[in-house]
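User
New here, explain this?
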Amino acid sequence: MSTGGDPAHAGIQGDKLERILKMRSTLAEHPNDQGKGWDRVWETQQVPPWDDGGVQPALRELVEEGKFQLPKSGRALVPGCGRGYDAAFFGQLGFHTVGLDISTVGVKKASEWLASQPNPPKNVSFQEADFFTFPNPKPFDLIYDYTFHCALPPSLRKAWAVRMADLLSPGGILITLIYPIDGDRQGGPPFSVSVDGYRALLEDTFENVLLEEPTRSVEGHKGREMIAVWRRREVGSDA
């Protein structure tokens, strides 16, 4: 199925478009309960639209080709963790990793998926919680955001940036897979994002240390994503 040039669905085609439209319809049935809305998405779609079956190639490229030297260990957070592929990936790299999701069903799916893997990393846990309010007495050393930012209503983006800065230790690393870059396309989730939008949100509290277009992308992502690494500025040095 083609988008037919409809700007509201720019860059989204075929089965993924069908799954996205179904997801939006399901979420619209629960406007005042995000957790319940995402629960219903998991319950009504065997493969939700953000699930490409594994870690995004762009993230693998960043790590495996040594494009940025990550810390050797520490605490990592993956908000909106989905089925848990990325949380497990960072666990395998040596991070004590928390996969966070507001959906009870999503956390259950992630836990089941991890348990089904051969020799799953034991330093990975999944937590049902609200990203904006969950208690976190100890800062993280690394946070990875792929489809969490674009799932949020744009009105929450400033709060997203403030919370990211609060959760990371000084010098901590935020990796953002900036997707979907669809210009002025309206509607979501996923809502269209831009590199300039991320810069505006993060430049006061983060230094951008890497920004590039991945050479590895899943089908439909080429030309619509960039990967960026940001370092949390030291406390007192915020612009």
Notes: The radius of gyration is 17 Å. The CA atoms of residues 100 and 148 lie 10 Å apart.
